[in-house]
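Case study 2.
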Amino acid sequence: MDDQRSTHLDDTLGLGLGGYAWLPALRRRRGPATAVHTRLLGRRTVGLRGPDAVSFFYDESHVRRRTAIPEPVQGTLFGHGAIHTLDGDRHRHRKAMFLSLLKDPRRVRDLVERVGQAWDEAVPSWAAREQVVLFDEAARIITRGVCDWAAVPLDDAHVPEVAADLTSMVDGFATLGPRHWRARRARGRRERWLSALIGKVRAGTVTPPAGSALGVVARYTEADGEPLDPKHAAVEMLNIIRPTVAVSWFVAYLGHALHRWPRHRSRLASGDMAYAVAFAHELRRFYPFAPFVGGVAVKDLTWRGEHIPAGSMVLLDLYGQDHDADLWPRPYDFEPERFLGREPDPDELVPQGGGDPRTGHRCPGEDVTVALLATLAIRMARLDYDVPEQDLTISLRRIPALSRSRFVLRLVSPADDDDVIPPDRFAARSGGKSWLSPLEVKES
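Prediction:
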């Protein structure tokens, strides 16, 4: 009966109520099945999980993204006409532009250094403030750093409003309430802003440095030799800047993790970069970010004996895979050590999607995310601060998830370079409501 209900009844409401836990819960009810069948918005939907599912999903002869992204997501998160809505040669040609900017180690290093500098300049002012909301401060710091790196002119006075718009686009993509309309307005403002800037570059009144993101996007031409119109060029500029600022979610989780497990602080504060990278990978595995990605079956398919009809929505369960006990022993334990001495298999660790970033839809900015988190983890571990009483629970029903308080600090002071703060000091001084599970809800 459960199988027939999951196959024939629409479960859009279940997704709204379950959030990240929705697909894992369907899988549990289905038992040992390799795929779960349901309906979303009346459309047949199949959910997959596992490394071989990643390979299957990102094969364009099986699943395509072009018609799969709903308009509300395009109108807030990605933008209309964005690279995420393309397939085949058009996608690969435009993807090469992103890869030239986000996969070059020198460019990644330059971006990380600029964000690190922005952090170092911002932190001394925190000491004079009654409290600091880490999520908001991280968004402003990363906005300042990435715009500087991209050669997008942005004076200090406008950083807070630009950061607020960039985070609103991410925060409102998965809801139809006030957050959604705030995200749409934010996207409109930032597309107009960047479209005007790109027009100035093309008119010769603004000259960005050679090789900068602004210069590369403004001068990019499609495979047919035609440039993107200013609006679509602005969309793709935002698809470089916005995901970088979305690392703010993980920075808030970074504060959350150091508060919950202060034993990691000393090793991070020592500057152990290998450990910091492992810590960054575990942050991305453990904490909720993207619940799933979706595409459309281009023909009748079979996966592990399961029939997937042509035209069905196919979902790759990212959160469920990153907490699959078959892949990650003790998946609800936070253990950076699981990534020490080895690079994660890209078909196993999929917090931002899977596949090959050079040929498929995998996020080309993963290297940036890991590098930013590693360098900011070291800096965060070297801060002295209190964590006042606040609500630190994280609901998996909210997409994108975030601790309710966005992680508040007070009495912040940078530690001296040689001063490693004892972990038990934080255990004794930290406040906050009790931690539930490891998250407010696991998969229920």
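Confidence is low (pLDDT under 50) at residues 1-6, 426-444.
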